[in-house]
Amino acid sequence: MDSPKLKNQLFINNEYIPPKSGHFLTLRNPRDDSILSEQIPIAGKEDVDNAVVVAQTAFKTTWGRLPGVERAKVLLKFADILEENIPLLARLEMLAMGQPIGVAMELAKLGPPVFRYYAGYCDKIYGQMLPEDGNGEYSLVQYQPMGVCAGIAAWNATMIFFAHKVAPALAAGNTFIFKPSEKSPLASLALGDLIKSAGFPPGTINIITGGGETGALLASHMNIRKISFTGSSAAGRKVQQAATASNLKSVTLELGGKSPSIIFDDADMENAVHHSSASFLLNSGQVCVAASRLLVHRKIAESFMDQLKARFEELAGAMGDPESPESYLGPLADRAQTERVLGYFEQARKDGVRFMTGGCKHERGGNYIQPTIMVDGSPDSVTWTEEIFGPALSIRIFDTEDEAIQLANDTSYGLSACVYTSDIARALRVTSLIEAGNIAVNSNYLPGHTVPFGGWKESGNGSREAGLAGLKSFMETKSVLINMKVGPRL
Ligand code: NAD
């Protein structure tokens, strides 16, 4: 595919328009730090206000008034258009954040099914009617859209975040403002043309770009009713605070993790090695659910770690140019992320952590980091407790099931976990005791769109994306009492 022309305008009210702020970001190619664009618009207050006004109008006059069956038609058409444009969207993701093209294609394919899934709900948002209880009063419970909703995303899988936020919100009848990360804005900006050709009324989906300041304008806006945030726990806290301090808007937080993976001695070793290496290193470890704390039973520890080390070193050879279909691993998203990860390695050395492999830049230089395994870190060392968000795994050895569960739960995060065992009773026992929102048995955890997704503890705030829970998180509940007897009730 030829290099696509990059969009350099905001998409508001079905039109590409320059930012009223007059400000732009520079975006670099993480492969070699060359400049991709110096014209990524930064939406300022006037731009955000403009997006909110047109989204309110669409909510009150067009999209918000459409019957469910009509909303479904547009969502289905959009899913088809997204699917036709997977190569374009994948290429733009690859350029901006260095995701190898093969990986970017697979991730972009996950978007259209989400729109199809939620299109199915559009005309099935049933309420309830309760039986008359003898006092002449009938009760109805209705589920209704909230109004203007907004989404703020991390950089590592933008098209999935877009789908998981926008599809349920629109299916419920809301209108939307989406802000991708400043590290990966290109595919989102390209969506404007696709949104328009799907037939969404102007103002239904608006795409704005910018950094944390733009996100903060959304979080604190008085006329946005709901915000769905995917990103770090630190920024998530700020979003929650801004939402509370402004109009108490509803908030969904999808935050960071330091997920455990427990390998019992009865596990299928090859399967556990595969998922702890190739699956873990997907997207160079820049995956929220990546199980970056590995707990292995003492009986198999030596052999497991030898095999894992060999696999990590083999995969270092599959690190390459993101444009090449042969590359499985690419660079990290940008220089700031690279420096952050290298900073963790430096701290690990000071803390006496041992590197079994990696722990430095890859020979390709730039933002390429070696797949890394760390061992012998104390339970309070920063590389054991903090999210690194890169190709870095930490390992500890355990002796008993109770000890493994205690170590797994000894974290402020609770996003996901993996359990490897051939004993189904143990799998059920252990999964029930782990404090996390998403657990996989005998594989890594891959979020899907049909079951609720979200974290416990500091990985979330109790709200969920995906599945029916994801749809409900974009709706208000209304109880209506109809009195058949006129007159005083008490
Ligand atoms: P980040 O928190 O730095 O940024 C995320 C988004 O928030 C960006 O769009 C950014 O512009 C915006 N932002 C930053 N400060 C803000 C503020 N004060 N108010 C409003 N918006 C603000 O996160 P990141 O570095 O882009 O992404 C990595 C993090 O995201 C990791 O912690 C990772 O685990 C997490 N993540 C979580 C999930 C999940 O579903 N739980 C998925 C992917 C990534």
UniProtKB/TrEMBL annotation:
- Does the UniProt entry include the keyword Disulfide bond? no
What positions does the domain Aldehyde dehydrogenase occupy?
Answer: 21-480
Q: Which reaction does it catalyse?
A: an aldehyde + NAD(+) + H2O = a carboxylate + NADH + 2 H(+)
Q: Which UniProt keywords apply?
A: Oxidoreductase
Catalytic residues (positions): 254
- Molecular function terms from GO: aldehyde dehydrogenase (NAD+) activity
> Keyword Oxidoreductase on this protein?
yes
Give the enzyme's EC designation.
Answer: 1.2.1.3
SUPFAM superfamilies membership:
ALDH-like
Q: Which family does it belong to?
A: Belongs to the aldehyde dehydrogenase family.
Protein's name according to its UniProt entry: aldehyde dehydrogenase (NAD(+))
